[in-house]
Design brief:
Elements: H1 4-17, H2 19-39, E1 48-54, H3 59-70, E2 74-80, H4 83-91, E3 97-101, H5 105-110, E4 118-121, H6 126-154, H7 159-166, H8 183-214, H9 225-257, H10 266-288, H11 294-302, H12 305-310, H13 323-330, H14 334-347, H15 355-395
Parallel strand pairs: 1-2, 1-3
Antiparallel strand pairs: 3-4
Helix pairs in contact: 1-9, 2-8, 2-9, 6-7, 8-9, 8-10, 8-11, 8-14, 9-10, 10-14, 10-15, 14-15
Length: 396
């Protein structure tokens, strides 16, 4: 049997020799942090170019164009009477949207008959398209409210009462957990954590598969569960130390580089990040026992990134998912950790505010260890039965 020290030395040799593990665990997290992050670096975009196609040529349509252009997020670079001229700029990506004001817009609006305004957006850049959409909607609501107010005042209704009837519900938006109110600040922190998670799964999983295929650990009758955990504890020390350091690097360097909020207790951040690393490594070891090759593992896990993100509850409420997906989501360490991370980093939460998520993360850590034990016992039992059958055949 290999000693703890020997396993530790063998793993270091493997990391140095296996370029795939080295690139995945050391180079990829830093590279993708800057590559993916660069997409959202300019999180608060301004002066997004659009064109307006005005079929009405009325004072109200010109007023709409002026209000849209006055929005700090939008810049009207041209106005056309023909949609094809605007589409030429749109298709060449010189503009990101086209606002189409229909004929008789002023007449129908003033008569309270309603008028449909069309908006064509380039949705390949959802950050900019979202800002255009919000800006235009705000303008149209303002115009509609002003028209209703004018109509009510002309109907001899007192100004204060007319104002209340024109705008019966006044929206008040206060950004609490996303101060800049843009997708970049909301998505980027979790995308950075997701990079750490996925590179750890892929890289450590490759090490697990190397152990299982090269040393035939699960086929060795002398390896009990204690020896099994000792082997992967020795191997995992490198990865735990490396990814704890990566979390520190991300917190201290990458987050400030992208001007991301990082609130809450740093001690809690690092403590819970450590629990998360351990949980991911245990689940990776458990899942690795179902694979035969490192190539198969890498291919499957590389495509798991987006599904794992979607079911984590960060982009879509878990309660709104189908029941089966809710069960899966609540069994993933990323689900409570993403929630904990968001509450700590952006909300400055204390331990009492994340108690349920911390308990869930610790329970999942224990569950992963239990699943690993049951999986080992199943393989050990199956191996023993095959040995008995083989001996019976030889005896006959």
């Amino acid at each position: 049997m290999r000693s703890f020290k020997q396993i530790f030395k063998d793993e270091l040799a493997l990391i140095i020799e296996d370029k795939s593990i080295l690139l995945t665990c050391l180079i990829a997290p830093i590279f993708y942090a800057f590559f993916v992050g660069s997409i959202y670096k300019e999180k608060d975009v301004a002066n997004i170019p659009i064109a307006i196609v005005d079929h009405d040529h009325s004072s109200l349509s010109r007023k709409v164009a002026q209000l849209v252009d006055s929005n700090e997020k939008i810049e009207v670079i041209s106005a056309y009477s023909n949609l094809n001229d605007a589409l030429f700029l749109f298709n060449s990506l010189d503009i990101q949207g086209i606002l189409i004001i229909p004929k008789d817009f002023e007449k129908n609006t003033i008569n309270l008959e309603g008028s449909t305004v069309e908006l064509i957006l380039n949705n390949t850049k959802f950050l900019t398209s979202n800002d255009i959409n919000k800006g235009v909607q705000q303008v149209m609501l303002t115009v509609a409210g002003g028209v209703r107010l004018s109509y009510l005042i002309s109907s001899k209704i007192p100004a204060e009462l007319a104002e209340q009837q024109a705008q019966p519900i006044m929206p008040v938006v206060k950004s609490i957990y996303n101060a800049t109110n843009n997708y970049g600040d909301y998505l980027l922190p979790i995308l950075l954590v997701l990079i750490i998670q996925q590179t750890l799964i892929i890289g450590f999983g490759q090490s697990v598969l190397h152990e299982l295929t090269h040393y035939k650990t699960l086929s060795d009758p002398e390896v009990n569960f204690f020896e099994f955990t000792k082997i992967f504890s020795a191997k995992g020390l490198y990865y735990f130390g490396l990814y704890a350091s990566l979390f520190f690097l991300f917190y201290k360097v990458i987050f400030p580089y992208y001007h991301l909020d990082f609130k809450g207790s740093e001690f809690l951040h690092f403590l819970l990040s450590s629990f998360f690393i351990l949980a991911v490594m245990i689940y990776t070891t458990f899942l690795g026992t179902f694979f035969k090759t490192t190539i198969g593992w890498t291919e499957i896990m590389a495509f798991s990134t987006y599904p794992l993100f979607l079911v984590s509850g960060y982009s879509w409420p878990i309660e709104a998912m189908p029941k089966a997906l809710q069960v899966i989501a609540n069994l993933l360490p990323s689900t409570p950790y993403f929630t904990v991370f968001n509450k700590l980093a952006t909300q400055g939460a204390a331990l009492v505010n994340i108690k349920s998520e911390v308990i869930q993360l610790l329970l999942l850590l224990l569950l992963g260890y239990l699943l690993l034990y049951l999986r080992f016992r199943y393989i050990h039992k199956k191996r023993s039965m095959n040995t008995v059958v083989s001996q019976s055949i030889v005896g006959d």
